[in-house]
Amino acid sequence: MSDNETVLSNEHTPLFANESGPIKEVHAFWLAGMSCDGCSIAAVGAKNPSVEQLIHQQIPGLPKIILHHPVLAVEAGHRFMEPYYKAVKGELGATYVVLYEGSVADEQIAKDTGGYFSAMGMDDLGDGKWRPYPTADMLDDLAPGAAAVIAVGTCASWGGVPAAVGNVTGSMGVMDFLGEDYRSALGLPVVNIPGCSPIGDNITETITAVLMFLAGVGPLPEFDELGRPAWMFNETVHRGCPRAGFYEEGVFAEEYGKPECLVELGCWGPVVQCNIARRGALGHNGGCMNVGGICIGCTMPGFPDAFAPFYKAPPGKFISGTASRMVGSFIRPLRKISQRKGNMTNRWLKTEHIPSGWGHVEAPGVVMKTIHYFYKKIQSSGTPYHPSGSNQQRKLQAKSRSAMSDAIQRSGKRAIEAEPVSSTAKELG
Ligand code: SF4
Ligand code: SF4
């Protein structure tokens, strides 16, 4: 028996898994555990694609998504909960995915005292007894039949703030809760979209990619060893940071509100895997260091404890910051010289005068001109392709002229050779 057949033998196997036709609709069950609802807010702010595009089937090939979300739903009470109960009992008769927000509390701790940590709907205990249905239990019940389980946010992915040192809830991520052997009805381990909150577009784009794969119209998206979408999380935030040039030149901000690198104010960007500096927080706008904030590592499994205390420079900054300062103190003046040259027109170089009405600009003196002269020599050495290499330019032009005349001669010869054939063709015509 193949692995795939093992998966399909699951008692909750959704209908589509046994059918060859394309999936037309997917139910998306949103569950909230120990959460602040920030991930929901981030998701509804997404633009590429937006939640509206997903639920109105505006993306070619993507099945229609029927979203069941406790905050966004129009229905309430039993009418809202009914599809959840049906899915739990294996009676939904349709494909579904589970989107879990917040960390999964150890509900046994709460049960021992007769309570619960986070619940939605009511669980029938028999004999007319009911109890609030913990979302952790519902996750356990829904996960085997789900086409995919997607952990939305750092709390759901790794545990996050509710699982920080000293918590009393025994909170953990979905991956910890379901175990490493967990596979969805279609054979997927838990997909993780970390971030506190994640970028909305990261959420909707991942859901889209997974659903396109499940619908058979897209490739399996690439995930890293922790189930993160690799194309979003395989680079550090530092590599895409607009302040990285300052870091490289060893220029660091000493207070907030300055444009330089924030590492000395506590930024962990050089080691944190996150795409917010490139993608922005919302509609390509905002995002931590783009708006002056440090990175506190909110996408990482170690968050928050591994990055606390926040606002204290990471220990590694001493070595890397000192190295950047040393290199930067040498590189910065050299770059200034090149920049000075780039800020001159050919005319100004000749006239040795910059006619700006905005302020006095000093023309390069003898020292600068000498440096520029040698700089230019080095810049143009080894290649004839530079504007001031007039001898080489002439040689190049002669070469291209002779290549052109060779080509003309060859095409003339071909035309003469082809003529008898065309005349014969004409005669025949
Ligand atoms: S602000 Fe942070 S992420 Fe940006 S360059 Fe400095 S250390 Fe790197
Ligand atoms: S840059 Fe850091 S703090 Fe900001 S979202 Fe990314 S991981 Fe979180």
TrEMBL record:
It is found in: Cell envelope. Its cofactor is [4Fe-4S] cluster. Residues 382-429 are annotated as: Disordered. Its main location: other. GO terms for cellular component: [Ni-Fe] hydrogenase complex; cell envelope; ferredoxin hydrogenase complex; membrane. Keywords: 4Fe-4S, Iron, Iron-sulfur, Metal-binding, Oxidoreductase, Signal. It is an enzyme of class 1 (oxidoreductase). Its EC number is 1.12.99.6. Residues 233-311 form the Cytochrome-c3 hydrogenase C-terminal domain. InterPro entries: Cytochrome-c3_hydrogenase_C (IPR027394), NADH_UbQ_OxRdtase-like_20kDa (IPR006137), NiFe-Hase_small_C_sf (IPR037148), NiFe_Hase_small_N_sf (IPR037024), NiFe_hydrogenase_ssu (IPR001821). GO terms for biological process: anaerobic respiration. GO terms for molecular function: 4 iron, 4 sulfur cluster binding; electron transfer activity; ferredoxin hydrogenase activity; hydrogenase (acceptor) activity; metal ion binding. Residues 382-403 have a biased composition (Polar residues). Residues 36-209 form the NADH:ubiquinone oxidoreductase-like 20kDa subunit domain. Belongs to the [NiFe]/[NiFeSe] hydrogenase small subunit family. PANTHER family: HYDROGENASE SMALL SUBUNIT (PTHR30013:SF5), NIFE / NIFESE HYDROGENASE SMALL SUBUNIT FAMILY MEMBER (PTHR30013). This is Uptake hydrogenase small subunit. It comes from hydrothermal vent metagenome. The lineage of its organism: unclassified sequences, metagenomes, ecological metagenomes.
